[in-house]
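Lab notebook, bench 4. The sequencing result for the construct came back, and we need a structural model before the next group meeting so we can plan mutations. Quick request posted to the team channel:

Model the 3D structure of this chain.
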Amino acid sequence: MANIEREERPERPTESDGTAHLFRALGRQIKVLRERAGMSQKDLGTATHCGEDLISAMERGVRTPQPEFLNRADKVLNAGGVLVAAIEEVREALTRSRTRHPDWFRDYARTEAEAVALHDYSNQAVPGLLQTEEYARALFTQRRPLLDEATIEKRVADRLDRQKIFERWPPPTMTYVLEEVVLQRPVGGRDAHERQLRRLLHVGRMRTVTLQIMPTDRAEHPSLDASFIMLTPKGRQQVAYTEAYGHARLITDPEEVRVFSELYGIIRSVALTPKESLMLIEKMLGDR
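Done. Here's the predicted structure in token form:
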């Protein structure tokens, strides 16, 4: 049997923002309609391409019924548009809801959301804030141990929600240094890879973002260890963040943070300039 990783305890969809009643009421409607149709949770799950445990969680109000599910379930249960009519309210509630992340990531997510400056060095994958939906879904789908489908969708939605940081005004100052090999790896397939490269071009041209590429052919490299991020929360001292195999560390000790800050400065000095970096991405797209 496949090794499937599940959330230890699914957080209620909006337990912190006051709209949980909407999902509890919608869950009860789904249950009534299902029972009226003479279907079990397993039957409904099969008909709507969901797991039985996900149907149970939605009926109890601990998982959010996604618009795609409501469309399918409305037809399967002969609901006559009752579930479809709730889609706009669901979308609005999801937009208002607090971003939900794995426990080990939440401290970082809160700090990131209020940062006035963010500096990211990535050597394994495109940073989450720069990922397309396809790229993010491919990463979560391919990871081991396997995640169940509900968790994958939750993680993708949460990652995309973090990208609202680009819409803030005044926006935070952001710089990125990506290893060239990160751009070469076609995560999600050829088409998804191309769209991800175009996303990097788009973000790299923003006046609040500086994007640099570290060429693979550099004979000297100041950091061949892990990726890391430097954050400056509003009104607070700069912090550093590292992560390996789900083990996260938010570093606040001034001396440790200073070391990361110096290292990042050296990395940037060795990498291609922002203009050269964008030209490299354009060349990669032109060679396809």
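The beta strands are 4-5, 115-122, 146-147, 173-179, 209-214, 228-233, 239-244, 247-251.
Will bring this to the meeting.
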